[in-house]
Request: fold
Amino acid sequence: MIGASILLESLKRVGVDVIFGYPGGQVLPIFDQLYDSDIKFILIRHEQGAAHAADGYARATGKVGVCLSTSGPGATNLVTGIATAYMDSIPMVAITGQVGTHLIGNDAFQEADVTGITRPITKHNYLVKDVKDLAQIIAEAFYIASSGRPGPVLIDIPVDVQRADTEFIWPEKVEIRSYQPTYSGHPGQVKKAVKLISGSKKPVIYAGGGIITSGAEIELKKLAEKIQAPVTTTFMGLGGFPGTHKLFLGMLGMHGTAYANHAVMGSDLIIAIGARFDDRVTGRLDTFAPGAKVIHIDIDPSSISKNIRVDVPVVGDAKNIIDELIGQITELPDTGEWLKTVENWKKKHPLTYKDSTTMLKPQYILQQLWDLTKGDAIICTEVGQSQMWACQWYQYQAPRTFISSGGLGTMGFGFPAAIGAKLGCPGKEVFNIAGDGSIQMNIQELATCVANKINVKVLIFNNGFLGMVRQWQELFYKKRYSFTPITSPDYVLLAESYGAVGIRVTKKYEVRPALEKAIQTNNTVFIDFRIEPEENVYPMVPAGKAINEMIEGLA
Amino acid sequence: MRHTISVLVENKFGVLSRVAGLFSARGYNIASLAVSETLDPSVSYMTIVVDAKDEKILEQITKQLNKLIDVITVMDFTKKEHIDRELVLAKINYTSKDKPKLEAIFSKFVGKIVQHKADTAIVEAVGDEQQIKVLLEELNKFGIKELVRTGKLAIE
Reply:
């Protein structure tokens, strides 16, 4: 069997049903095999879109997303998407063609040292030099991508290896002596955690993306209800706890709710689960939660005690460890007073905005979207103000319903990710919340949507600005709007020219009907919402401040 | 503080670059690095010496090293009992009349002349960090024309 067939056969063995990619000179043998393969192939319009689509597919389904490109520029175009997946611990396998082994290092046409370029942004990568190793490498790549703390793995396959012939031997089991992730928590550490929880009076659960990766949402809810602790999630953790639950505080950190930040700062115990105390969460480190002891549960030992001092580290899988905690906690903490205090913060510092009858407010649009869908939809986002509003104003009920680039903050992520999510979950309504800046970064994927009948609904919050940067310029750079005003094409005409549907909304009363029409339309829809140009995202913790020193001004 | 770290890795292409990348990405210079095969030819042993300005960053680096798929074990020898040695080859100014002086030096250190041509000798010496430091000061009295060092090797 030739290398290209081994590749596709191996992909089938690991359960791949869709590949996002783009052909080119050094992947011709693979594309020749794809021509009559039963694996679905989605021809994207830019390789960056392929990586984001594979990522969106992975986030929506929990399966490994797969993207494929040629060597050189095809591969370097994947880089932003690979880095995005790496920062958010998303299981992905990127397959790149490479020039023939005899040409590697010769500055051959469309050659780039892709394993070198992607080394710091992949969990692992491979250059396949011998076709005999190919099946083993693919099996390892999928195992590494999806186990432990997941992440992207890249396989670089020279074109002569794709053509070379060998016997296909599929390894039924993958074992790597130097890679053995820890799944169950150390019993001694779990005991210590139980003791801290029982002795606490003001506990807060701080849950991150690890809840979603681990599939621990049910356990998390049980734990919170058992110990009656309020729950805040990180950006990556949204959907890991029901957004309408009375113990839920919303997201914490720079654009988190004021009450989540107050609760964390005032707590005597932080139970961190699958979160990494990112700088957007902690604000100024030496002021963070001064009275709190910290239990940190994470599958990645390098996340623990990286930014803040941890009292009880527990390395392992969130689901296993929460389950252990629930089983072992017999003495329940008395949190009655604490919950009252938290409730007061909720009342005193609610999430709010100044509505308008004349201007279109982005928060209002999201409230309408929530009202129409009640959490039964997948919300993808781009990056910036629109993204932060989408975190604040939609109550995610279930894991894998909020898909957004967190760690890397990649503009242009949302639209192709929505394509991946829709392919992974065809029965779900998929929205992309976009700004007029971000949507223009991968707008070419409109063609992919229309050609493949992938009906995603893109809600463009069009304010004529790169809004988040403008907000910083307004607050910290004396309103000197340096290169943040941005022009757009006519999105309605643009959508129509691609064969999609475009709707323009300028008035408040048009919002609801437009959203309803978008949902009913069996096509990709762009809605151009002309929103208030200088609306800000609040609350906001300025850089270098403690997280309870928020600007809470109404926009 | 100067740290000596040993890393047991899969003996494959690209591994050294993965390991080195974790130091360079944080602006850490590797002071010395020795790599060789072990008894098991599929495994290599690296001894890395690095000056850590911030112990927390070094702790992060060792944790990240452990995360690399091709890394089998990582050990920081700094606070552990261990033996370390370095080999140096030095080309020094030397004539036969210097023999007693050099012999006096080598009575205190592990080393010898490996080549003597006209007014130059190449000497080899083995020792721990402090010994090598003192030895080099002694040899410098002859005038060192060229010096190569293996970098430190360490074993528990």
Notes: Strands of chain B lie at 2-10, 30-37, 43-51, 71-76, 83-93, 110-117, 120-127, 144-149, 153-155. The longest strand of chain B covers residues 83-93. The interface with chain A takes residues 9-10, 13-14, 17-18, 21, 25, 59-60, 63-64, 66-72 of chain B (CB under 8 Å).
